[in-house]
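User: Hey, my collaborator sent me this sequence without any context and asked if I could get a structure. I don't really work with proteins. Can you help?
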Amino acid sequence: MYYQERPVNKGIDWLMIMLYLSLILIGWLSIFAATYDELQPSIFDIDRAYGRQFLWIIGALLLAGTVLLTDSKFYPAFAYVIYGLIMLLLLAVFVIGSTVKGDKNWIDIGSFQLQPSEFAKFAANLALAKYLSGMNINMKLMRTRITAIIIFMLPAVFILLQGDAGSAIVYVAFFLVLFRFGLPGSYLAIGLYVIMLSVFALVLDKYLLILILFVVSGILWFVSRRNRSIVLILATGFILSAGYVLTTDFVFNNLLEPHQQQRISVLLGKEVKVKDADYNVRQSKIAIGSGGLWGKGFLNGTLTKYNFVPEQSTDFIFCTIGEEYGFWGSTLVLLLFLTLLLRILHVAQRQRSRFSMIYAYGVAAIIFFHLLINVGMTIGLMPVIGIPLPFISYGGSSLWSFTILLFILVKLDGDRLAVLR
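Assistant: No problem. I've predicted the 3D structure and written it out in structure-token form, which is a compact way to encode the shape of the chain:
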């Protein structure tokens, strides 16, 4: 058996590529607007962020071409090898890594700084797709579930130990892939319950919350008291919930960094001792709101121009779009992302290979999670955890990793119609 030889551009999904090119162009112009210097107006000035981003874009396009020229069978065949190499890079950070803004998650390579945590996303996606597409894999088995979770949580643990909680949280997105391929919905229900319990434990009085849990458990017990198994589950659930509530303060005050405590407190509307702890979010919302319906125009954003919003070319790049292009410009960008996500899901459904289908859902999950968190934190609906907006935020590691992530899917999809003889 062999695959019929096909031209490189045969079967390529040009819509995905056009959406990709549109987003990186919008990103480049937004970075230019966010870091524009009237004394050095050239958009190609490599001493400025937008000039360096242009070099990253050129590199990204070369990477995209390399991925498309690589045989699609390479990715499932070497998925574990790629995963292993990236894990070694993550471990190398602990030895030779450099610290940037408090996080030790970079490796210096000459004048370029590589962030292995960004590349670990596509590596984990490849490894997860390889494992779940294997023979005799059944999501009903606990062994399968645990192994799958270890595959994508291992890099998350390494990244968390490096001090980058934001990048580590992104790996939760892979649970969406597991739910799509057979993980019971009870896991999702438990996860949402824990999140809600955490929020209430931080906002309400602990003993009042335990009393509420006791009353609710009592009502449910009264309704189902004839079913002993349900009564046992309710009793166990109440004890575990009450214990969790009582330990919330310890975890919050002792395991989280001060800046993480401040960000969660700001999101929940709690009083913060540090002055201007909500400065980033407050300025972000002002910038986006000041754009109005149509925006102030390219390079005319006053809050953007005078650097009122910190990290405006990276984590808060959406502020620049909101201020300069207004509601309609922001909506257009979100519609481009929505179109890309829907296209990826459509591509996932038409795959003949289980590996390609699982990988495609992983791509959608990662991009969706980044979009949700990044845009959410700029408008005050999510905690500020510092993750980039895909294809738009400044940074070579981010752009290159998302490019590889997406174009592996483009390549896999392009070869789905190869004739097997």
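In plain terms: The mean pLDDT is 86. You can pass these tokens on to your collaborator as they are.
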